[in-house]
Specification:
Elements: H1 2-35, H2 44-56, E1 60-62, E2 70-74, E3 82-88, H3 115-132, E4 144-150, H4 158-164, E5 175-186, E6 190-192, E7 195-198, E8 201-209, E9 213-214, H5 224-242, E10 249-258, E11 264-265, E12 268-277, H6 280-300, E13 304-313, E14 316-318, H7 320-334, E15 339-341, H8 351-357, E16 360-368, H9 389-408
Parallel strand pairs: 3-4, 3-5, 5-16, 6-15
Antiparallel strand pairs: 1-2, 2-4, 6-16, 7-14, 8-12, 8-13, 9-11, 10-12
Helix pairs in contact: 1-3, 1-9, 3-9, 5-6, 7-9
The chain binds nickel (II) ion.
Protein backbone atom coordinates (compact mmCIF):
# COMPACT_ATOMS: atom_id res chain seq x y z
CA UNK A 1 0.00 0.00 0.00
CA UNK A 2 2.79 2.34 1.02
CA UNK A 3 4.65 1.60 -2.20
CA UNK A 4 1.52 2.30 -4.18
CA UNK A 5 1.15 5.71 -2.49
CA UNK A 6 4.80 6.48 -3.11
CA UNK A 7 4.44 5.55 -6.77
CA UNK A 8 1.46 7.89 -7.07
CA UNK A 9 3.42 10.69 -5.42
CA UNK A 10 6.18 10.09 -7.90
CA UNK A 11 3.74 10.39 -10.80
CA UNK A 12 2.41 13.72 -9.49
CA UNK A 13 5.96 15.02 -9.12
CA UNK A 14 6.72 13.96 -12.66
CA UNK A 15 3.53 15.68 -13.92
CA UNK A 16 4.56 18.92 -12.22
CA UNK A 17 8.09 18.64 -13.68
CA UNK A 18 6.69 18.10 -17.15
CA UNK A 19 4.26 21.03 -16.76
CA UNK A 20 7.27 23.19 -15.90
CA UNK A 21 9.30 21.76 -18.75
CA UNK A 22 6.64 22.52 -21.38
CA UNK A 23 5.52 25.84 -19.97
CA UNK A 24 7.47 28.26 -22.15
CA UNK A 25 6.49 26.34 -25.30
CA UNK A 26 2.83 26.36 -24.23
CA UNK A 27 2.97 30.11 -23.59
CA UNK A 28 4.25 30.54 -27.18
CA UNK A 29 1.43 28.33 -28.45
CA UNK A 30 -1.19 30.26 -26.50
CA UNK A 31 0.16 33.59 -27.77
CA UNK A 32 0.09 32.36 -31.35
CA UNK A 33 -3.59 31.40 -31.04
CA UNK A 34 -4.17 34.74 -29.34
CA UNK A 35 -2.73 36.63 -32.33
CA UNK A 36 -4.94 34.83 -34.84
CA UNK A 37 -8.38 34.49 -33.21
CA UNK A 38 -11.25 33.13 -35.31
CA UNK A 39 -15.00 33.30 -34.82
CA UNK A 40 -17.22 30.28 -34.22
CA UNK A 41 -17.25 27.75 -37.07
CA UNK A 42 -14.52 29.72 -38.87
CA UNK A 43 -11.61 28.28 -36.89
CA UNK A 44 -9.75 27.12 -40.03
CA UNK A 45 -6.28 28.43 -39.20
CA UNK A 46 -6.61 27.38 -35.57
CA UNK A 47 -7.65 23.86 -36.61
CA UNK A 48 -4.81 23.43 -39.07
CA UNK A 49 -2.26 24.74 -36.57
CA UNK A 50 -3.51 22.30 -33.91
CA UNK A 51 -3.23 19.48 -36.46
CA UNK A 52 0.33 20.55 -37.31
CA UNK A 53 1.25 20.60 -33.64
CA UNK A 54 -0.25 17.13 -33.09
CA UNK A 55 1.91 15.88 -35.92
CA UNK A 56 5.00 17.64 -34.57
CA UNK A 57 4.41 16.10 -31.13
CA UNK A 58 3.61 12.63 -32.56
CA UNK A 59 0.12 12.58 -31.11
CA UNK A 60 -2.37 10.67 -33.28
CA UNK A 61 -5.06 12.78 -34.87
CA UNK A 62 -8.53 11.25 -35.06
CA UNK A 63 -9.94 11.58 -38.58
CA UNK A 64 -13.34 13.32 -38.50
CA UNK A 65 -15.80 14.93 -40.90
CA UNK A 66 -15.67 18.21 -38.98
CA UNK A 67 -15.26 21.41 -40.99
CA UNK A 68 -13.46 23.09 -38.09
CA UNK A 69 -12.25 21.62 -34.81
CA UNK A 70 -10.20 18.46 -34.45
CA UNK A 71 -9.47 15.59 -32.08
CA UNK A 72 -6.58 13.37 -31.04
CA UNK A 73 -5.98 10.19 -29.10
CA UNK A 74 -3.24 8.62 -26.99
CA UNK A 75 -3.81 4.87 -27.02
CA UNK A 76 -3.35 3.21 -23.65
CA UNK A 77 -4.11 -0.24 -22.24
CA UNK A 78 -6.69 -1.74 -24.53
CA UNK A 79 -9.34 -2.69 -21.97
CA UNK A 80 -8.64 0.38 -19.81
CA UNK A 81 -10.99 3.34 -19.35
CA UNK A 82 -11.19 6.10 -21.96
CA UNK A 83 -11.14 9.68 -20.72
CA UNK A 84 -11.77 12.74 -22.89
CA UNK A 85 -10.43 16.25 -22.35
CA UNK A 86 -12.38 18.98 -24.10
CA UNK A 87 -11.05 22.44 -24.96
CA UNK A 88 -12.98 25.11 -26.88
CA UNK A 89 -11.06 26.98 -29.60
CA UNK A 90 -13.24 29.85 -30.88
CA UNK A 91 -12.99 33.61 -30.28
CA UNK A 92 -15.40 36.54 -30.00
CA UNK A 93 -16.41 39.56 -32.12
CA UNK A 94 -14.71 41.94 -29.66
CA UNK A 95 -11.92 44.40 -30.49
CA UNK A 96 -8.97 43.73 -28.19
CA UNK A 97 -7.85 46.72 -26.13
CA UNK A 98 -4.72 45.15 -24.62
CA UNK A 99 -1.42 46.50 -25.94
CA UNK A 100 1.16 43.76 -26.17
CA UNK A 101 3.22 42.15 -28.89
CA UNK A 102 0.83 39.25 -29.29
CA UNK A 103 -2.25 41.47 -29.64
CA UNK A 104 -4.94 40.09 -31.98
CA UNK A 105 -4.08 40.68 -35.62
CA UNK A 106 -7.70 40.14 -36.65
CA UNK A 107 -9.61 43.41 -36.55
CA UNK A 108 -12.65 43.25 -34.31
CA UNK A 109 -11.99 39.68 -33.15
CA UNK A 110 -10.25 38.53 -29.97
CA UNK A 111 -9.87 35.67 -27.52
CA UNK A 112 -11.71 37.65 -24.84
CA UNK A 113 -12.94 34.44 -23.22
CA UNK A 114 -9.52 32.77 -23.07
CA UNK A 115 -10.23 29.81 -25.36
CA UNK A 116 -6.66 30.25 -26.71
CA UNK A 117 -5.52 29.48 -23.17
CA UNK A 118 -7.84 26.44 -22.94
CA UNK A 119 -6.43 25.13 -26.24
CA UNK A 120 -2.84 25.51 -25.02
CA UNK A 121 -3.73 23.67 -21.80
CA UNK A 122 -5.22 20.71 -23.67
CA UNK A 123 -2.09 20.52 -25.84
CA UNK A 124 -0.04 20.73 -22.63
CA UNK A 125 -2.01 17.86 -21.09
CA UNK A 126 -1.43 15.81 -24.25
CA UNK A 127 2.33 16.44 -24.05
CA UNK A 128 2.52 15.57 -20.36
CA UNK A 129 0.49 12.37 -20.80
CA UNK A 130 2.50 11.41 -23.88
CA UNK A 131 5.75 11.80 -21.91
CA UNK A 132 4.29 9.96 -18.91
CA UNK A 133 3.72 6.80 -20.95
CA UNK A 134 7.33 5.84 -20.23
CA UNK A 135 6.55 5.57 -16.50
CA UNK A 136 3.97 2.82 -16.99
CA UNK A 137 4.33 -0.92 -17.67
CA UNK A 138 4.66 -1.60 -21.39
CA UNK A 139 5.03 2.18 -21.91
CA UNK A 140 1.26 2.46 -21.99
CA UNK A 141 -1.10 4.55 -19.86
CA UNK A 142 -3.68 2.48 -17.92
CA UNK A 143 -6.30 3.66 -20.43
CA UNK A 144 -6.70 5.88 -23.48
CA UNK A 145 -7.12 9.65 -23.63
CA UNK A 146 -8.99 11.62 -26.26
CA UNK A 147 -8.50 15.34 -26.81
CA UNK A 148 -11.39 17.33 -28.27
CA UNK A 149 -10.56 20.73 -29.76
CA UNK A 150 -14.12 21.97 -30.10
CA UNK A 151 -15.32 24.73 -32.44
CA UNK A 152 -18.21 27.15 -31.85
CA UNK A 153 -18.70 27.21 -28.11
CA UNK A 154 -19.65 30.90 -28.20
CA UNK A 155 -22.52 30.54 -30.65
CA UNK A 156 -23.92 27.05 -30.90
CA UNK A 157 -23.51 23.65 -32.38
CA UNK A 158 -19.85 22.99 -31.56
CA UNK A 159 -20.29 20.29 -28.94
CA UNK A 160 -23.13 18.66 -30.85
CA UNK A 161 -21.06 18.54 -34.06
CA UNK A 162 -18.34 16.65 -32.17
CA UNK A 163 -20.87 14.20 -30.72
CA UNK A 164 -22.43 13.68 -34.18
CA UNK A 165 -18.93 13.09 -35.57
CA UNK A 166 -18.85 9.99 -33.34
CA UNK A 167 -16.00 11.18 -31.13
CA UNK A 168 -17.56 9.69 -27.99
CA UNK A 169 -17.36 6.23 -29.63
CA UNK A 170 -14.62 3.91 -30.93
CA UNK A 171 -13.38 3.58 -28.28
CA UNK A 172 -16.29 4.68 -26.05
CA UNK A 173 -15.51 7.54 -23.69
CA UNK A 174 -16.15 6.71 -20.01
CA UNK A 175 -15.79 10.25 -18.64
CA UNK A 176 -15.17 13.74 -20.00
CA UNK A 177 -13.55 16.72 -18.33
CA UNK A 178 -13.24 20.38 -19.26
CA UNK A 179 -12.28 23.65 -17.65
CA UNK A 180 -12.86 27.36 -17.96
CA UNK A 181 -10.47 30.06 -16.84
CA UNK A 182 -11.85 32.14 -13.97
CA UNK A 183 -10.33 35.59 -13.39
CA UNK A 184 -12.42 36.01 -10.21
CA UNK A 185 -10.37 33.37 -8.36
CA UNK A 186 -6.55 33.58 -8.01
CA UNK A 187 -4.15 31.85 -10.38
CA UNK A 188 -2.97 28.70 -8.65
CA UNK A 189 -6.43 27.78 -7.38
CA UNK A 190 -9.00 25.35 -8.80
CA UNK A 191 -12.76 25.46 -8.16
CA UNK A 192 -14.78 22.25 -8.39
CA UNK A 193 -18.28 21.27 -7.39
CA UNK A 194 -20.56 18.36 -8.02
CA UNK A 195 -24.04 18.97 -9.43
CA UNK A 196 -25.14 22.27 -10.94
CA UNK A 197 -22.39 24.60 -12.20
CA UNK A 198 -23.78 26.57 -15.17
CA UNK A 199 -27.28 27.45 -16.31
CA UNK A 200 -29.28 26.11 -19.21
CA UNK A 201 -29.87 28.65 -21.98
CA UNK A 202 -33.29 28.94 -23.65
CA UNK A 203 -34.69 31.79 -25.74
CA UNK A 204 -38.34 32.69 -26.21
CA UNK A 205 -40.26 35.00 -28.54
CA UNK A 206 -43.90 35.85 -28.01
CA UNK A 207 -45.90 37.63 -30.70
CA UNK A 208 -49.17 39.01 -29.33
CA UNK A 209 -51.79 39.60 -32.00
CA UNK A 210 -54.42 42.17 -31.04
CA UNK A 211 -56.55 44.51 -33.11
CA UNK A 212 -55.19 47.95 -33.88
CA UNK A 213 -57.10 51.20 -34.13
CA UNK A 214 -57.37 54.80 -33.01
CA UNK A 215 -55.70 55.54 -29.69
CA UNK A 216 -58.75 57.58 -28.60
CA UNK A 217 -61.17 54.71 -29.31
CA UNK A 218 -59.71 51.78 -27.32
CA UNK A 219 -63.11 50.11 -27.01
CA UNK A 220 -62.89 49.26 -30.72
CA UNK A 221 -59.48 47.61 -30.38
CA UNK A 222 -57.67 44.75 -28.64
CA UNK A 223 -54.59 46.51 -27.32
CA UNK A 224 -51.50 44.25 -27.63
CA UNK A 225 -49.39 46.67 -25.54
CA UNK A 226 -51.65 46.32 -22.52
CA UNK A 227 -51.74 42.55 -23.02
CA UNK A 228 -47.94 42.54 -23.40
CA UNK A 229 -47.54 44.45 -20.13
CA UNK A 230 -49.61 41.78 -18.38
CA UNK A 231 -47.43 39.10 -20.01
CA UNK A 232 -44.21 40.76 -18.76
CA UNK A 233 -45.64 40.84 -15.22
CA UNK A 234 -46.76 37.23 -15.53
CA UNK A 235 -43.28 36.13 -16.64
CA UNK A 236 -41.80 37.69 -13.49
CA UNK A 237 -44.05 35.52 -11.32
CA UNK A 238 -42.94 32.24 -12.93
CA UNK A 239 -39.63 32.13 -11.09
CA UNK A 240 -40.90 33.56 -7.80
CA UNK A 241 -44.03 31.37 -7.62
CA UNK A 242 -43.28 28.19 -9.56
CA UNK A 243 -39.65 27.40 -8.72
CA UNK A 244 -38.53 26.36 -5.25
CA UNK A 245 -36.51 29.08 -3.47
CA UNK A 246 -33.80 26.43 -3.07
CA UNK A 247 -33.43 26.04 -6.84
CA UNK A 248 -32.28 28.58 -9.41
CA UNK A 249 -33.90 30.09 -12.47
CA UNK A 250 -33.98 33.42 -14.31
CA UNK A 251 -36.57 34.68 -16.77
CA UNK A 252 -35.51 37.96 -18.38
CA UNK A 253 -37.41 39.94 -20.99
CA UNK A 254 -34.79 41.60 -23.16
CA UNK A 255 -37.05 42.96 -25.91
CA UNK A 256 -40.52 44.52 -26.04
CA UNK A 257 -41.37 46.00 -29.41
CA UNK A 258 -44.72 47.54 -30.34
CA UNK A 259 -46.20 50.55 -32.09
CA UNK A 260 -44.92 53.49 -34.13
CA UNK A 261 -47.14 56.43 -33.23
CA UNK A 262 -48.56 58.12 -30.13
CA UNK A 263 -52.11 58.09 -31.43
CA UNK A 264 -52.34 54.56 -32.81
CA UNK A 265 -52.95 51.27 -31.02
CA UNK A 266 -50.85 48.76 -33.00
CA UNK A 267 -51.93 45.33 -34.23
CA UNK A 268 -49.23 43.40 -32.47
CA UNK A 269 -46.51 43.43 -29.85
CA UNK A 270 -43.41 41.25 -29.67
CA UNK A 271 -41.74 40.23 -26.43
CA UNK A 272 -38.52 38.20 -26.37
CA UNK A 273 -36.11 37.07 -23.72
CA UNK A 274 -34.04 34.32 -22.17
CA UNK A 275 -34.58 31.61 -19.59
CA UNK A 276 -31.75 30.15 -17.46
CA UNK A 277 -32.21 27.25 -15.08
CA UNK A 278 -30.13 24.97 -12.88
CA UNK A 279 -31.61 21.60 -13.84
CA UNK A 280 -33.33 19.88 -16.77
CA UNK A 281 -36.43 19.38 -14.55
CA UNK A 282 -36.82 23.13 -13.92
CA UNK A 283 -36.05 23.81 -17.57
CA UNK A 284 -38.99 21.54 -18.57
CA UNK A 285 -41.26 23.08 -15.95
CA UNK A 286 -40.57 26.66 -17.03
CA UNK A 287 -41.01 25.89 -20.72
CA UNK A 288 -44.41 24.30 -20.04
CA UNK A 289 -45.56 27.00 -17.64
CA UNK A 290 -44.38 29.84 -19.83
CA UNK A 291 -46.08 28.59 -22.97
CA UNK A 292 -49.35 27.63 -21.25
CA UNK A 293 -49.79 30.63 -18.98
CA UNK A 294 -48.79 33.19 -21.59
CA UNK A 295 -51.28 31.72 -24.06
CA UNK A 296 -54.07 31.68 -21.46
CA UNK A 297 -53.37 35.26 -20.34
CA UNK A 298 -53.27 36.60 -23.87
CA UNK A 299 -56.47 34.76 -24.84
CA UNK A 300 -58.25 35.87 -21.66
CA UNK A 301 -57.56 39.45 -22.74
CA UNK A 302 -58.92 38.84 -26.24
CA UNK A 303 -55.64 38.45 -28.13
CA UNK A 304 -53.82 35.55 -29.75
CA UNK A 305 -50.29 34.45 -28.93
CA UNK A 306 -47.67 32.93 -31.21
CA UNK A 307 -44.96 31.50 -28.99
CA UNK A 308 -41.54 30.26 -30.08
CA UNK A 309 -39.46 28.58 -27.42
CA UNK A 310 -35.95 27.40 -28.31
CA UNK A 311 -33.73 25.29 -26.10
CA UNK A 312 -30.12 26.25 -26.78
CA UNK A 313 -27.93 24.70 -24.05
CA UNK A 314 -28.81 22.28 -21.25
CA UNK A 315 -27.37 23.14 -17.79
CA UNK A 316 -23.87 22.02 -16.84
CA UNK A 317 -24.48 19.44 -14.09
CA UNK A 318 -21.35 17.71 -12.84
CA UNK A 319 -21.33 13.98 -12.14
CA UNK A 320 -20.79 13.45 -8.40
CA UNK A 321 -18.28 10.61 -8.81
CA UNK A 322 -16.16 12.37 -11.46
CA UNK A 323 -16.21 15.62 -9.47
CA UNK A 324 -15.08 13.79 -6.33
CA UNK A 325 -12.12 12.26 -8.21
CA UNK A 326 -11.18 15.67 -9.64
CA UNK A 327 -11.22 17.24 -6.17
CA UNK A 328 -8.57 14.71 -5.12
CA UNK A 329 -6.56 15.47 -8.27
CA UNK A 330 -6.71 19.20 -7.51
CA UNK A 331 -5.47 18.61 -3.96
CA UNK A 332 -2.46 16.77 -5.44
CA UNK A 333 -1.68 19.57 -7.90
CA UNK A 334 -2.44 22.79 -5.97
CA UNK A 335 -2.93 21.55 -2.38
CA UNK A 336 -6.06 21.44 -0.23
CA UNK A 337 -6.07 25.16 0.62
CA UNK A 338 -6.10 26.07 -3.07
CA UNK A 339 -8.85 23.60 -3.95
CA UNK A 340 -12.06 25.60 -3.70
CA UNK A 341 -15.76 24.84 -3.92
CA UNK A 342 -16.72 26.25 -7.35
CA UNK A 343 -19.26 29.03 -7.37
CA UNK A 344 -21.96 28.32 -9.95
CA UNK A 345 -23.11 30.83 -12.57
CA UNK A 346 -26.21 31.24 -14.74
CA UNK A 347 -23.98 31.73 -17.79
CA UNK A 348 -24.31 28.89 -20.32
CA UNK A 349 -21.72 26.46 -21.72
CA UNK A 350 -22.22 23.73 -24.33
CA UNK A 351 -19.96 21.27 -22.48
CA UNK A 352 -23.38 20.23 -21.10
CA UNK A 353 -24.18 18.38 -24.36
CA UNK A 354 -21.32 15.95 -23.66
CA UNK A 355 -22.62 15.51 -20.11
CA UNK A 356 -25.97 14.31 -21.50
CA UNK A 357 -24.03 11.44 -23.12
CA UNK A 358 -21.29 10.54 -20.60
CA UNK A 359 -20.46 11.43 -16.98
CA UNK A 360 -18.42 14.59 -16.89
CA UNK A 361 -17.08 17.42 -14.81
CA UNK A 362 -16.46 21.02 -15.80
CA UNK A 363 -14.44 23.14 -13.40
CA UNK A 364 -12.87 26.58 -12.85
CA UNK A 365 -9.17 27.16 -13.21
CA UNK A 366 -8.16 30.29 -11.31
CA UNK A 367 -6.41 32.87 -13.51
CA UNK A 368 -6.87 36.08 -11.49
CA UNK A 369 -3.78 38.12 -10.62
CA UNK A 370 -4.31 41.85 -9.87
CA UNK A 371 -0.52 42.45 -9.86
CA UNK A 372 -0.41 41.41 -13.52
CA UNK A 373 -3.59 43.34 -14.31
CA UNK A 374 -5.65 40.15 -14.63
CA UNK A 375 -8.85 41.61 -13.21
CA UNK A 376 -11.29 41.77 -16.12
CA UNK A 377 -14.12 39.31 -16.53
CA UNK A 378 -14.96 37.18 -19.56
CA UNK A 379 -15.77 39.06 -22.80
CA UNK A 380 -14.10 42.30 -21.62
CA UNK A 381 -11.93 44.06 -24.29
CA UNK A 382 -9.02 44.00 -21.82
CA UNK A 383 -9.56 40.39 -20.79
CA UNK A 384 -6.33 38.67 -19.69
CA UNK A 385 -5.17 35.44 -18.10
CA UNK A 386 -2.19 34.75 -15.87
CA UNK A 387 -0.16 32.49 -18.17
CA UNK A 388 1.40 30.75 -15.14
CA UNK A 389 -1.96 29.00 -14.84
CA UNK A 390 -1.21 27.09 -18.07
CA UNK A 391 1.07 24.96 -15.88
CA UNK A 392 -1.63 24.39 -13.28
CA UNK A 393 -4.22 23.61 -15.94
CA UNK A 394 -2.12 21.13 -17.93
CA UNK A 395 -0.91 19.39 -14.77
CA UNK A 396 -4.45 19.23 -13.38
CA UNK A 397 -5.82 17.76 -16.62
CA UNK A 398 -3.08 15.10 -16.74
CA UNK A 399 -3.50 14.20 -13.06
CA UNK A 400 -7.31 14.03 -13.43
CA UNK A 401 -7.03 11.67 -16.39
CA UNK A 402 -4.80 9.26 -14.44
CA UNK A 403 -6.98 9.44 -11.32
CA UNK A 404 -10.12 8.79 -13.35
CA UNK A 405 -8.45 5.82 -15.06
CA UNK A 406 -7.57 4.49 -11.62
CA UNK A 407 -11.09 4.91 -10.23
CA UNK A 408 -12.99 3.75 -13.30
CA UNK A 409 -10.92 0.66 -14.14
NI1 LIG B 1 -15.61 30.84 -22.68
Amino acid sequence: MKNDTQAKHKVTERILQLADHWHSRLVEIRREFHMYPELSNQEFRTTSRINEMLQEFSIEKIETNLTTGTAAILHGKQDGPVIAIRADIDALPIQEENEWKFKSKHEGISHACGHDFHTAIAIGAALILRDLQDEFPGKQLPGSVKFFFQPAEETEGGAESMIHAGLLQNPSVNAIIGLHNKPEIPAGTIGIKEGFLMGSVDDFRICIKGKGGHAALPEKTIDPIVIGSAVVQLLQTIVSRAVSPLESAVVTVGQFHAGHATNVIPNEAVIAGTVRTSSPAIQNRIENLLTQSVRQTVEAMGGKAEIEYARLYPPVVNDAKVAAVLKQSAVKIVGATHTLEAEPTMGGEDFSFFQLEVPGCYYWLGTGNPEKGVIHGWHHPEFKVDEEAIKTGSAMMAQSVLDLMDKLK
